[in-house]
């Protein structure tokens, strides 16, 4: 396979009721090994980049890394810009070749969010790209974006009107999920996903996946959550793996960066395989 559209990945997952890991990478090492893990699991994967990562690495450099690492890849992969409220960054990434974007205008009034999302969808279509939309802010701060104060959820009617009028390809509802680390097992509104999908069969994006239970993932994926976002879990794994290996280096007084990189890479690959297996996408490559 090769690089495909977001819609091709999520539509298959939605129809067959499995979830595809949508993993936020932070650098070249994590990008390479999320892709490697997807190949090992024979799973499609959605590689996500935050606005913070795009700006810290540089959009052009990041896209060049993506092109190089996906050349000849054997599973379906796609590149997604996560939670972006900045229209200029969306335009930059679409022009470079990102396959999809999440235009996050959830802090705007619904009508203004809807108006601008329609514009973003039209812009994306010009590049053959797709759009994820949301009208409610997902609780929690991630990569300097968001709020720890839970916002008001919109009615089912407002949500369905937004999906239909904007033409978004994926919808991200607030269901009690949150970015970051959960202090307690989250209490989720499973029925809200079912109500949306029953009225408007659109693939659902599940945000705040790090820390949910296996049972919660299984239930939500069965209801239509075809895109399962994972960010915090990778960041914690990446930094803890670094820390553990640095402690070993300090204790042994052996300072060999390639050894560190190999160990961290193995951990990231392992996480990707684990997620693909858990969400049911392992073995689903075409």
TrEMBL record:
Its EC number is 4.1.2.13. Keywords: Lyase. GO terms for molecular function: fructose-bisphosphate aldolase activity. It is an enzyme of class 4 (lyase). Gene3D superfamilies: Aldolase class I (3.20.20.70). Signal peptide: none annotated. Transmembrane segments: none annotated. InterPro entries: Aldolase_TIM, Class_II_FBP_aldolase, FBA_II. It comes from the Bacteria. Its cofactor is Zn(2+). Pfam families: F_bP_aldolase. This is Fructose-bisphosphate aldolase class II. It comes from Conyzicola nivalis.
């Amino acid at each position: 396979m090769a690089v495909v559209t977001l819609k091709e990945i999520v539509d298959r997952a939605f129809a067959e009721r499995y979830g595809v890991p949508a993993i936020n990478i932070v650098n070249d090492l994590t990008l390479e090994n999320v892709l490697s893990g997807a190949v090992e699991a024979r799973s499609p994967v959605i590689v996500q980049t935050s606005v913070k990562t795009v700006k810290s690495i540089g959009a052009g450099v990041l896209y060049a890394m993506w092109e190089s690492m996906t050349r000849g890849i054997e599973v379906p992969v796609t590149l997604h810009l996560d939670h972006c409220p900045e229209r200029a960054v969306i335009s930059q990434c679409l022009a470079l070749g990102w396959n999809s974007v999440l235009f996050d205008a959830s802090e705007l009034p619904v009508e203004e969010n809807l108006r601008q999302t329609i514009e973003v969808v039209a812009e994306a279509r010009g590049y053959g790209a797709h759009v994820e939309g949301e009208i409610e802010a997902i609780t929690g701060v991630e990569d300097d974006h968001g709020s720890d104060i839970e916002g008001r959820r919109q009615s089912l009617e407002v949500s369905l009107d937004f999906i239909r009028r904007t033409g978004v390809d994926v919808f991200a509802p607030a269901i009690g999920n949150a970015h970051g680390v959960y202090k307690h097992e989250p209490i989720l509104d499973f029925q809200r996903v079912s109500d949306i999908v029953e009225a408007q069969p659109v693939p659902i994006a599940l945000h705040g996946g790090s820390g949910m239970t296996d049972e919660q993932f299984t239930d939500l994926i069965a209801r239509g959550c075809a895109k399962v976002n994972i960010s915090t879990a990778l960041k914690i794994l990446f930094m803890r793996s670094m820390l553990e290996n640095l402690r070993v280096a300090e204790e042994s007084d052996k300072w060999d960066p390639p050894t560190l990189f190999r160990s961290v890479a193995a951990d990231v690959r392992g996480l990707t395989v684990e997620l693909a297996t858990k969400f049911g996408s392992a073995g689903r490559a075409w």
